[in-house]
Write a structure and sequence with these properties.
By secondary structure, the protein is mainly β. The chain contains five helices and 42 strands. The protein is globular.
């Protein structure tokens, strides 16, 4: 434990306090009287009775924590069902056979279902032929076919050595955009801008116009609001000359100007040069309501195999040495989420020891120190990707693992860092999985599994959709912590942050949407803006002309998950 790590203490203090704001000259809501937020999401199922009673209508004090209103467990699978297949494979729905490195679900046309981006890029030592960037449109509500490959039609004829694809609304127009992380220094990142209402789900390649002109050797990236200004920035991995060998490189931070134009700021992310940077996670690991940066590197590196940089809240990062276990040199990913229910974010390594995956406990709670303690390693196969899912709906994250060397795996979590492997969540399918995604693609309230294949035998490269067969999600999102508010003079707004937890966490995505309204003093409710920062962290902002004096400010915040379960709370 280094002195640097010992300085950081948990902000999740048990004492709650009411936020007061001084009103000098008055604060103005952006609407004279905003409509109340609905108790449940329109045209969707609501949470169970227990969940609604615990989660809706509560008042939560800013600057503290909440029990989140956990619903009663709604789907105990039982011992027998726990060993039955958990997913049913859709046959011959994604027929293209090619080396695929990444998959990302997104509702590109806002028709209410999730479409699929695939990043195809063969080889990892030397580049193979470039491949078309892929987009499969969800047609599960139609008779003709479940998925329609409309890659060239909607993206244009653009090929690259893509290793990952990430999505987000980069210009705040309400439509999801996509960025392909390209390897081998042959192309800059490919940023596809959604045309929006004029042509929903049709894209223009606008990399150069939006600030991406340099080619990297990038295996991954992630969008997130790192400077707390209400738009999505980008962190890109870079491995230097060779993806898994060579001297390595530092990652890249690009700040967004709010209109979807990016500028690299190397001065704000002083990460050391390391080899084989294959994964990045942006999440609030130290509990101070901003996004920190955690990098997984598939190699032995001086000064620690992996690196963690802490955010000061403005997008300026500082390396923290000694907090993350060195783990294995065979790490492909470190997934982030609360694995033991203590409200801080823990880690799950692929791999923790040699080729064995395993968890690492964040000691922020209860010790007050940001340091991760490695747990017991599990298995011994070459696994490449993990996602967190509360499959049995018992209130804790289980772990889905995509395996390169065998069947996919599900690790049941007992809630206290003890995991038990399921016999085979997908039976009869052994393929070389390089990436997975967990999302409800058929809209039945159950989370499904999408897998992407590459390496080894090309005849096994078929990407697959496995539909969930377990309990439906009836648990509403839980508010874990709320920050104190702050006045931003430059933008004349009052800002509060909310940490939310739901039943999935997959590379920062939890499939929760949120909305808010604000009330200042005795004035009517007015409009407020809720924007996703990343990994369950939300930013609430209300227009405000000056530092408030003597009056209270309140936000009404509503979060809805993919199954329509909804939490609404007043934060004051």
């Amino acid at each position: 434990m280094t002195p640097e790590a010992a300085r950081f203490r948990s902000s999740h203090v048990p004492a709650l306090f009411v936020l007061t704001a001084a009103l000098v000259g008055g604060c103005a809501s952006t609407a004279p009287d905003a409509e109340p937020l609905a108790e449940s999401a329109p045209d969707t199922a609501t949470a169970s009775a227990d969940g609604d009673a615990a989660s809706n209508g509560a008042v939560v004090d800013m600057g503290g924590v909440t029990d989140g209103g956990d619903a009663a467990p709604s789907g105990d699978v039982g011992d027998a069902a726990a060993e039955a297949p958990l997913f049913a494979t859709m046959v011959d729905q994604l027929p293209l056979s090619r080396w695929t490195e990444g998959v990302e679900p997104a509702d590109v046309d806002r028709d209410g279902d999730l479409d699929l981006f695939f990043a195809d890029g063969p080889a990892f030592v030397a580049p193979g032929p470039k491949q078309q960037n892929q987009l499969e449109i969800n047609r599960l509500d139609e008779v003709v076919a479940a998925w329609s490959n409309e890659s060239v039609l909607r993206l244009g004829a653009h090929a690259s050595h893509a290793k990952m694809v990430v999505t987000g609304d980069v210009d705040g127009d309400g439509w999801v955009d996509a960025l392909f992380c390209n390897a081998f220094r042959t192309d800059p990142p490919f940023l596809y801008h959604n045309r929006g209402a004029s042509a929903p789900g049709w894209f223009d390649l606008e990399s150069e116009q939006r600030g991406f002109t340099t080619a990297f050797n990038s295996g991954s990236g992630q969008f997130g609001d790192v400077d707390d200004d209400g738009d999505l920035d980008l962190v890109l991995c870079d491995s230097g000359e060779h993806l898994l060998m060579g001297e390595g490189a530092a990652p890249h931070l690009f700040l967004n100007d709010g209109r979807g134009h990016f500028t690299e700021r190397a001065d704000l992310l002083p990460a050391p040069v390391k080899r084989a940077r294959v994964d990045v996670q942006l999440a609030d690991l130290d509990g101070d309501f901003d996004l920190d940066a955690l990098f997984a590197n598939r190699a032995e590196n001086a000064g620690g195999n992996h690196d963690l940089l802490l955010n000061d809240g403005s997008g300026r990062f500082t390396p923290l040495v000694g907090a993350v276990p060195d783990a294995s040199k065979n790490v492909y990913e470190i997934e982030v989420g609360d694995l033991d229910g203590d409200r801080d974010l823990d880690l799950f390594f692929l791999s923790l020891s040699d080729y064995s995956e395993g968890p690492a406990d964040n000691r922020l709670v209860p010790d007050g120190e940001l340091v991760f303690r490695a747990g017991a390693p599990l298995g011994d196969l070459d696994d490449n990707e993990a996602a967190l899912i509360d499959y049995d709906m018992d209130g804790d994250y289980d772990v889905l693992v995509g395996s390169l060397a065998g069947e996919e795996k599900l690790l049941w979590n007992d809630g206290d860092f003890a995991f038990r492997q399921h016999a085979g969540p997908v039976t009869g399918v052994e393929d070389p999985t390089l990436d997975i995604a967990v999302a409800d693609v058929d809209g039945d309230g159950r989370y499904d599994l999408v897998t992407a294949q590459g390496e080894g035998d090309p005849s096994r490269y078929t990407n697959r959709v496995h539909l969930g067969r377990g309990p439906k999600d009836t648990r509403p999102p839980r508010i874990v912590a709320v920050s104190a508010g702050s006045f931003r003079a430059a933008t004349r707004e009052w800002v509060v942050h909310v940490q939310v937890r739901d039943e999935v966490m997959d590379d920062g995505q939890d499939w929760v949407v949120a909305e808010a309204r604000a009330r200042i003093g005795d004035r009517p409710w007015g409009a407020a803006r809720a924007t996703r920062m990343g990994a369950g962290l939300w930013r609430l902002a209300s227009a405000c002309e000056s530092e408030a004096e003597g009056r209270r400010i309140a936000f009404e915040f509503a979060a809805t998950d993919a199954a329509g379960n909804r939490t609404k709370q007043v934060l004051r």
